[in-house]
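Per your request, structure below.
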């Protein structure tokens, strides 16, 4: 096989990568994007590594996007279908509960705290960060118990299959087992949610 034929095959392999780069970066000025796309087409074997090792969106990001959509859906449903309920207050209750539930599930190390401990020459900065996290988690947990109770009371007040279904989807996505337990009991029961016993509420939202 001649060199010219190999060159044609090589460039043909690189053209799709050049097009890929052009489509992804079409916000740049025309002459720059065309020049860069041509370069990518020629050095496509390097661009392959860029694509393979590119940081992908984390699972948490997708979860938070889903939670945001469900949160918006439940707020809009309450606003449109329940005129007797204070919408602004209901939205605040939902937002507070979601924020605290997300904070409860966030187990990542706090980079700022870690850097501060390193600067202060803490002998064991990683252990120090974990201790700080444990303290913060206790505070979050106590606030979450109250926020969860307010959220569940709001759902009970609405008492429709649609709202309960959306709320169940929300608490399951948030991985809140206590809230999931009570909402499942309510959804499986034919009696109105308002008649839920205080015993069931305490079982699902234990006060610690």
């Amino acid at each position: 096989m001649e060199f010219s034929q190999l060159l044609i095959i090589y460039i043909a392999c690189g053209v799709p990568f050049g097009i890929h780069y052009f489509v992804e970066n079409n916000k740049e000025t025309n002459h720059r994007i065309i020049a860069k796309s041509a370069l990518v087409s020629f050095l496509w074997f390097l661009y392959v590594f860029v694509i393979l090792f590119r940081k992908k969106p984390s699972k948490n990001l997708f979860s938070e996007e889903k939670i945001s959509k469900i949160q918006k859906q439940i707020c809009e449903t309450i606003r449109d279908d329940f005129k007797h309920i204070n919408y602004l207050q209901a939205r605040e209750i939902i937002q507070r509960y979601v924020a605290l539930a997300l904070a409860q599930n966030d187990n990542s190390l706090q980079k700022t705290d870690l850097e501060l401990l390193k600067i202060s020459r803490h002998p064991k900065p990683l252990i120090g960060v974990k201790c700080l996290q444990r303290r913060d988690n206790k505070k979050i947990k106590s606030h979450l118990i109250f926020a969860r109770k307010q959220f569940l009371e709001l759902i009970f007040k609405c008492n429709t299959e649609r709202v309960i279904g959306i709320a169940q989807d929300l608490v399951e996505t948030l991985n809140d087992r206590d809230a999931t337990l009570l909402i499942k009991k309510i959804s499986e029961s034919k009696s109105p949610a308002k008649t839920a016993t205080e015993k069931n509420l305490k079982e699902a939202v234990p006060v610690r």
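Residues 125-158 form the longest helix (34 residues).

Regards,
D.
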